[in-house]
Design a protein that fits this description.
Number of helices: 8
CATH topology: Rossmann fold
Order of helices and strands: EHEHEHEHEHEHHEH
CATH class: Alpha Beta
């Protein structure tokens, strides 16, 4: 794996940073995508030190901004002959948010960051991934979807415009969309050397300091929840497995949990008609 190059979005904190360290230790060249240069540089230094690798670099990348994504891809294409592994780790889920926020393109940021952005980034990097001996695309969903087995995509209003905004609903809809996108893209690329798989991330300890607007009650709830959560390092082991395991060389269109086991997604997520509707909707944003 020494010659493999991996781009991991949101690689500056949490599971993304832990995965970057593990992948760098494994001999991969790592590019961490981060929207904030100062935070990115701090993370870059830590990843290099903990992995004992200098093959780590920072890419300024805001997954909510299509302009930024296109600019970042232009830099990648100029500086790298190929990208072998793409991990869509970055996510927008500020649990303290009470009202929608909007991207440069005036798209609600949860939808933009967690679904539209990854689709655009993948599309722009497909030619690079096809140059790899065996390209891998890894999308990220949430175990929370298990608690919403009947959740559907709000095709008529995916950004909840003029509706009561609940960040949890927006988040889980975006993660459902990523599961469906995984199935669609794996089918689209079935005759290529690129595999596409999704990770169902379980409860993971979070840094509460990342959410300064949380109420004291919410902080207490997350403190209790953390006692039943795994560490970012533990969750990152599944990222490492999907990115590097030889036994997954031809495995595509699958859904894995934190123990590297195959799991199933909802009936709606596997409905081919609904998947096509989602991708037709997504295309209108790009």
């Amino acid at each position: 794996m020494a010659s493999k190059t991996c781009l991991i979005t949101g690689g500056n904190s949490g599971i993304g940073k832990a995965a970057a360290i593990q992948l760098a230790k494994h001999g991969l060249k790592i590019i961490i995508g981060c929207r904030d240069e100062n935070r990115g540089l701090v993370a870059l230094k830590e990843i290099k030190e903990k992995s004992n690798s200098n093959s780590v670099e920072l890419l300024l990348l805001d997954m909510s901004s299509q302009r930024c994504i296109r600019s970042a891809v232009n830099k990648l294409i100029s500086n790298h002959s190929q990208i072998d592994i793409l991990i869509h780790n970055a996510a927008d889920f500020d649990i303290s948010r009470k009202a929608p926020q909007y991207s440069d393109e005036n798209i609600e940021t949860v939808w933009a960051t967690n679904h539209v952005g990854p689709v655009l980034l993948t599309e722009l990097l497909l030619d690079k991934l096809k140059q790899s001996e065996q390209g891998r695309i890894i999308t990220i969903a949430s175990q929370g979807l298990v608690l919403h087995p009947f959740l559907k995509i709000n095709f008529a209003n995916p950004e909840f415009t003029n509706e009561k905004f609940r960040v949890e609903t927006a988040y889980y809809q975006s993660k459902l969309a990523q599961v469906m996108y995984t199935y669609w893209l794996s089918d689209k690329l079935k005759n290529t050397k690129i595999t596409v798989n999704c990770i169902r991330v379980t409860n993971v300890k979070i840094d509460i300091e990342r959410y300064p607007n949380l109420s004291q009650l919410m902080k207490l709830m997350y403190s209790i929840k953390s006692k039943f959560s795994i560490s970012p390092d533990e969750m990152a082991q599944t990222y490492l497995y999907l990115a590097t395991s030889p036994e997954l060389q031809s495995v595509t269109g699958k859904y894995f949990d934190e123990k590297n086991r195959l799991v199933t997604s909802s009936t709606f997520s596997k409905d081919k008609h609904q998947i096509e509707k989602l991708m037709e909707l997504t295309a209108k944003y790009i």
